[in-house]
Specification:
The protein has 6 helices and no strands. By secondary structure, the chain is mainly α. α1 packs antiparallel against α2, α2 packs antiparallel against α3 and α5 packs across α6.
Length: 155
């Protein structure tokens, strides 16, 4: 049975994700900032595959590009590719450990796409600092996923 799309939880989760993405951090913490928008997009692509797809991911990434002032299309391209890869995998119920492996691979691929686009746009690489968000994002995935599932199922 297909359950109806939950627009309130959807909108709130995206607003919170964008707010956390732009929340100011100090010093070294800026390098470790998890990719909150990416996590929320991945969740919604898995929760509502019949409603949301590559177009939604591309728009979420484009909004991130516009709001962050980075290279236009950098996050949009990465999100669209990730959404396409998730659609290829299909709707499956993965175990906790398998989910972590898939999210790790997708997060690493997402970050590598944004790094390549950034380098092509003429920005300098920041060494290994550019991969720190992958680690923090993967560790945060379970928490974000569990909280969103509970909110999604209660509505």
């Amino acid at each position: 049975m297909v359950r109806p799309f939950s627009s309130i939880v959807f909108i709130l989760s995206l607003l919170i994700a964008y707010s956390l993405y732009f929340y100011p951090l100090r010093g070294e913490m800026t390098y470790w900032r998890p990719m909150f928008v990416f996590l929320v997009v991945i969740f919604w692509l898995q929760a509502e595959p019949h409603v949301l797809g590559v177009g939604f991911a591309w728009l979420a990434g484009l909004a991130l590009d516009v709001l962050s002032g980075g290279a236009l299309g950098q996050h949009a391209l990465a999100m669209a590719v990730i959404a396409y890869l998730l659609q290829l995998a299909g709707q499956r119920n993965f175990s906790l450990w398998y989910q972590m492996m898939v999210v790790t691979a997708l997060t690493l691929f997402y970050q590598l796409v944004t790094i390549v686009v950034s380098l092509l746009a003429g920005k300098a690489a920041e060494n290994w600092f550019m991969l720190y968000p992958v680690v923090s994002t993967v560790f945060l995935w379970q928490f974000v996923s569990i909280v969103q599932w509970k909110l999604y199922k209660t509505e």
